[in-house]
Amino acid sequence: MTRRRMSILSMAALAPLAVDVSSRDSSVTSFMVAAGGGSYAEVTRGCQGEVLSADQRRYRDMGYAVNHKFVGLVNVGVRATVLRRMVGYRDGSVMWNPNASLEGTHVGFGLGYVSNADRPNSDEFDIWPVSGHLRVGRLSRLYYSIHALEDVPLVSGGGTIRSGIGFRPGRLVDVWAGLGYGPPYDKPGFEARSAVHLNSMLDLNASGRLSSSEGRSENAGSLGLTVRLTRGPKPASPDSSRAPVSPLIDE
Hints:
Helices cover 6% and strands 53% of the residues. It has a single domain, classed as Beta Barrel (Porin). The strands form two sheets. It has a twelve-stranded antiparallel barrel. It has a two-stranded antiparallel ribbon with strand order 12-13. By secondary structure, it is mostly beta strands. The two termini are 28 Å apart.
């Protein structure tokens, strides 16, 4: 079984864990825009795994997202990433990702569809059409999560798959750190993400990746802004464990 199929099947097997009976008392519509770029190594290997060539490739991307959290557990939204200078894609190609999720207090699970827009026969950025995530733990404290093809922008914001630990060191900041792997990057790399809550409506989002392969850098970074429109009762106090968190970390 290929690593791709194992990833999809493992996420599907964990789907029942998403059931949670916690309630939410307000609906939130969020809009996000982010831009970034980076580099990756295009490595050609022989039949025995020997390196035949290693070239440096650079790219840019920009992402957009709209998400609506209903009163309760349900989230629905759509993400889009515009690719620039990505080998194997026409410049300006757009990847769409409509998605939905259930977000409880202790567990969250989501699935979506990723379009292969303008993709010729190329292995440079080999993706599958399924996105998703699984989270175990409280967003307001400490949690583990794994994400597949969900980031905004898709490539510089994270890439194919990332897994790691999220936590909240202060009321105004959310942090996530872990390991990212999969195309277009040749080797796994360290990834970190943060959301600074500027006020009740605005978040400043940032992400970064550090890695290398065969002497070529595989680094990336992105910056973004999220605007939230909340409808319904406000949290009882800013210190409440149910305080709103950034859609960047929620998803």
